[in-house]
């Protein structure tokens, strides 16, 4: 049976500086537990990474719950800093293991918008679309925007 690839996106309006917004994800992801504590319970560098600045091959482990049951490990696979665009591949985690054979997410920030595009292949037709994760990303984006607005 042939696998079908899917693509979905969510756009979050932002009023803060696009550059500062992008820097939270690309250089200061450790702040996400403070900025969006309802969505990011813990974030850590893994697999020998020692810098929070995104580089191709850098990896992070993100926990969505305090028990550590809902998590994912991602790897940066492509960066376009001038375009404020980064693509992450999910390497492991319960969403990948339970429903998807592959899952990657691209963040693209422009003045006024933060857009996440996810591309994935489902393990089978019964697996749901990743709406839950897109809504969580949208919520994190809104939290970052609110955090950065006073800094503009």
Characterization of the model:
The chain is α+β, with helices and mostly antiparallel strands. 25% of the residues lie in helices and 38% in strands. The protein has helices at residues 18-27, 32-35, 94-99, 131-148; strands at residues 5-13, 42-45, 59-63, 71-80, 85-93, 100-110, 113-122. A 7-stranded antiparallel beta sheet has the order 1-7-6-5-4-3-2.
Tell me briefly what this model is.
With about 150 residues, the chain is an alpha+beta fold. About 25% of the residues lie in helices and about 40% in strands. Pfam families: Bet_v_1.
Descriptors for this entry?
globular, single chain, 7 strands, 152 residues, alpha+beta
**What is the overall silhouette?**
globular
Listing every helix as H and every strand as E from the N terminus to the C terminus, the arrangement reads EHHEEEEHEEH
Uncertain segments: none
Q: Which quaternary structure do these chains form? A: single chain
Strand order of the largest sheet: 1-7-6-5-4-3-2
Q: What fraction of the residues are assigned to beta strands by DSSP?
A: 35-45%
> What is the percent of helical residues?
25-40%
Which structural class best describes the helix and strand composition?
A: alpha+beta
Number of strands: 7
> Distance N terminus to C terminus?
52 Å
Largest sheet: 7 strands, antiparallel
Q: What is the radius of gyration?
A: 15 Å
Overall mean confidence score, pLDDT: 92
| Number of helices, where a helix is a run of at least 4 consecutive DSSP H or I residues | 4
Protein name: Bet v I/Major latex protein domain-containing protein
InterPro entries: Bet_v_I/MLP, MLP-like
GO biological process, one term: defense response
Organism: Populus tomentosa
């Amino acid at each position: 049976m042939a696998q079908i690839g899917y693509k979905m996106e969510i756009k979050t309006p932002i009023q803060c500086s696009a550059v500062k917004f992008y820097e939270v994800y690309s250089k200061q992801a450790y702040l996400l537990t403070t900025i969006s504590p309802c969505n990011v319970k813990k974030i850590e560098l893994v697999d020998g990474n020692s810098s929070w600045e995104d580089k191709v091959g850098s990896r992070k482990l993100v926990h969505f719950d305090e028990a550590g049951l809902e998590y994912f490990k991602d790897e940066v696979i492509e960066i376009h800093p001038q375009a404020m665009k980064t693509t992450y591949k999910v390497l492991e985690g319960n969403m990948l293991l339970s429903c998807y054979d592959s899952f990657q997410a691209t963040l693209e920030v422009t003045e006024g918008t933060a857009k996440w595009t996810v591309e994935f292949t489902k393990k089978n037709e019964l697996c749901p679309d990743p709406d839950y994760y897109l809504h969580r990303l949208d919520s994190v984006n809104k939290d970052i925007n609110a955090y950065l607005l006073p800094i503009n």
